Amino acid sequence: MNTSLSDFDSAATSPGYDPSYVFGERDLKWSSILQFPNVTASAYDIGVQAKPFEVTVNDQAIFAPSADDGQTGFRRAELLPAGGDAIVTGRKALHFSLMIDPQRPLNYSHEYQLVFVESADYSTNQLVLKTGTLIGSSGGESKRLLLQGNVASLPIPTLFETPFEEGQWYNFGLDMDFDQNTVEVFFSTGNDSLLSQGSAQFNDLSGKGQWHVGVLKKPTGNVQDITREGYQESGINEGIIYGGVFFEDNSSNCFETV
Description:
mainly beta
């Protein structure tokens, strides 16, 4: 509970995240991007006296992998959990909760990636939680949470989906076997205990890589390169609230629920 926003700016004090990635202009710091919202703690946070945090994006949230390579098609800010290969090998459980901030609403005509793992060679996302209108989809705006498997698969597998509404926590537990390439989804809302959403499903988890937790807003429009092209409206102030983000070893099949 004593963590301050400035703690996220330094490797010496950050509560388990890389202080250098992933955000926009190079003089930004996490302390200017994150917020501690005034909301009830998530079920994961209550027992350890932790507090939720919010990842926000605005017009300056343009990540540049190099000085002359700005991703102008995206608006993005994602925390990278520490842990290296240890959290993308063996059998692991990822827990997290998320909540809508009605004061910083998303624009659901766009596609958003909220929690995802990006392979070490940057060629795919092995797991990705999305909301909004998926690029290439037909119909109106979609206010749902959609957990997809490896996006290099054809077709891309849907592992779980649920409506995404204001006023409550959405709690996830992902039981991931990186050796057997399987994922079992656990889910609940509010303070309810996690429940399995079905048996473990095959999903290609190979490629190791890095987890991301935050907001990656994709552009609209029919474009060839979504990282640098497409439409992003100006004057945005958007965010997603997170709670209880943590990994644990699950080699003994002891998946922990809330």
